[in-house]
């Protein structure tokens, strides 16, 4: 019998239920997939707690890797036996499972050089890093960026990619251990935000100029400090709200702080075009296969331990990537 983690109401980690499920034959455009590893992402907590409203009951998880068992009518991009990975949003909810039906369209064939666990740990994070580094800003060698949550899964990938582009990386972290990990993955400077003023330290590091780009996945708690860290006409990239959503503000604030730019991108809009998704996936896969970017998997959970996994994630006890191993 296949297993899955499902929710019947939105709330805290305690609403997660580990239970038996039945997987039917795939319908038109669907694939029956056996999972080998499943990604744990902060976005999963938003689906669980109601930040992202979803119909009830429902599954959780939007990223996994595995093997195709069967395909439905009209599926031509994959075949039984193919190794695949996927990520998405509403259309891929239900990844917290040992087997499932999933739409064929989001599936990406997995190169033999990429293992299942690596794929589950980096498909969403890797594609996110890819569009942030290749689509958001025209970086020049010598540019300086500020990267919040530098020891997280996306942060560790961005740091390594930034060094390939010749950038200087300032990363924020909450502990000395996370600072050490961030530096080991490419951060030139680290700022412990639990005891340092981020904006003041950024100005000190940059000789008063500020950074070209801020990647801020924290949200409410870091928003003003991020703006104050930017140089004139710098770019604020809001990529997450781990501490809560950003309060409403007058756009005049951006002018007052140096004619700043601001964007709130979403991965879904950068992988909606199959050609662009293939380009971004190809870039991150090539970097990983060549050893230019390493994927750090620091937490492994069993699917039945999803409650603890969510507690650890929200308590910021995790570093790098986290996965469920089936």
From TrEMBL:
The keyword Mitochondrion does not apply. Keywords: NADP, Oxidoreductase. InterPro entries: ADH-like_C (IPR013149), ADH-like_N (IPR013154), ER (IPR020843), GroES-like_sf (IPR011032), NAD(P)-bd_dom_sf (IPR036291), QOR-like (IPR047618), Quin_OxRdtase/zeta-crystal_CS (IPR002364). Pfam families: ADH_N, ADH_zinc_N. The keyword S-adenosyl-L-methionine does not apply. CDD domains: QOR2. It comes from the Bacteria. Residues 11-324 form the Enoyl reductase (ER) domain. PANTHER family: QUINONE OXIDOREDUCTASE PIG3-RELATED, QUINONE OXIDOREDUCTASE-RELATED. NCBIfam families: PRK10754.1. This is Quinone oxidoreductase. It comes from Microbulbifer harenosus.
């Amino acid at each position: 019998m296949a297993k899955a983690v499902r929710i019947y109401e939105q709330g805290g980690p305690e609403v997660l239920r580990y239970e038996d499920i039945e997987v039917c034959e795939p319908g038109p455009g669907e694939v029956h997939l056996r999972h080998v590893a499943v990604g744990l992402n902060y976005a999963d907590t938003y689906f669980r707690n109601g930040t992202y409203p979803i119909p009830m009951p429902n599954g959780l998880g939007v990223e996994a890797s595995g093997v195709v068992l069967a395909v439905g009518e009209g599926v031509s991009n994959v075949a039984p036996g193919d190794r695949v990975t996927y990520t998405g949003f509403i259309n891929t909810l239900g990844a917290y499972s040992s087997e499932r039906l999933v739409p064929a369209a989001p599936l990406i064939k997995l190169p033999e050089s990429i293992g299942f666990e690596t794929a589950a740990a980096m498909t969403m994070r890797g594609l996110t890093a890819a569009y942030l580094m290749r689509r958001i800003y025209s970086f020049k060698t010598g540019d300086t960026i500020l990267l919040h949550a530098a020891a997280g899964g996306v942060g560790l990938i961005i740091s390594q990619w930034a060094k390939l582009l010749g950038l200087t990386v300032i990363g924020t972290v909450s502990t000395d251990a996370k600072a050490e990990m961030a530096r080991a993955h490419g951060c030139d400077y680290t700022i412990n935000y639990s005891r340092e003023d981020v904006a003041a330290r950024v100005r000190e590091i940059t000789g008063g100029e500020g950074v070209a780009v801020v990647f801020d996945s924290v949200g409410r708690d870091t928003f003003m400090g991020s703006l104050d860290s930017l140089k004139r006409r710098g770019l604020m990239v809001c990529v997450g709200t781990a501490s809560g959503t950003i309060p409403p503000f007058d756009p005049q604030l951006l002018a007052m702080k140096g004619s700043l730019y601001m964007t709130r991108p979403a991965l879904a809009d950068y992988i909606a075009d199959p050609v662009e998704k293939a380009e971004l996936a190809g870039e991150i896969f090539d970097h990983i296969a060549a050893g230019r970017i390493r994927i750090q998997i620091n937490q492994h959970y069993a699917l039945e331990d999803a409650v603890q996994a969510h507690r650890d994630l929200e308590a910021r006890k995790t570093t790098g990537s986290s996965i469920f191993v089936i």
